[in-house]
Amino acid sequence: xxxxxxxxxxxxxxxxxxxxxxxxxxxxxxxxxxxxxxxxxxxxxxxxxxxxxxxxxxxxxxxxxxxxxxxxxxxxxxxxxxxxxxxxxxxxxxxxxxxxxxxxxxxxxxxxxxxxxxxxxxxxxxxxxxxxxxxxxxxxxxxxxxxxxxxxxxxxxxxxxxxxxxxxxxxxxxxxxxxxxxxxxxxxxxxxxxxxxxxxxxxxxxxxxxxxxxxx
Length: 216
Known about the structure:
Elements: E1 4-14, E2 20-31, H1 36-61, H2 97-100, H3 137-150, H4 200-205, H5 209-215
Antiparallel strand pairs: 1-2
């Protein structure tokens, strides 16, 4: 990759007025090839390119494979492999998006529900004193009961209670007519004897006292 050429240079001596005094022909040898620095730079570039190619191939081989290995044509929206451990978050296609959509938000309108804010009373506003480190349990409970009874914001709230009283002034009237006016002894169940043998047991149970006395 190198060659040697011969360059002839004539060296002449001149005066101050540029007149030539004498000239001599001397041969000078020059190398027309690449220098050592250029060769080193070219080799360094080649090595860097080789290193980049090797790293790229190594990274492609070490790329993680999917946890669920199956062919694309086997994917179904209603067929899911249930015996896998982990990897569920990577499955972003095996589901029906129509089922997961909110029917209220399909048309882009979601009803607004405004709730009026309520003032939250703090224990300081209600006059509730924090419990000290060491207190009498009896006094502590009684104090808390008194504070709860005196709290106007705690349920049940005071309101007028209207009850439908029975009797005088009631639309339904009195229910005393439902009370039995006679005892069991005043009732006559002898007609059960005429119902036939199927009701004989019932007739014996509700028969009159005379029937029991006759049987005895």
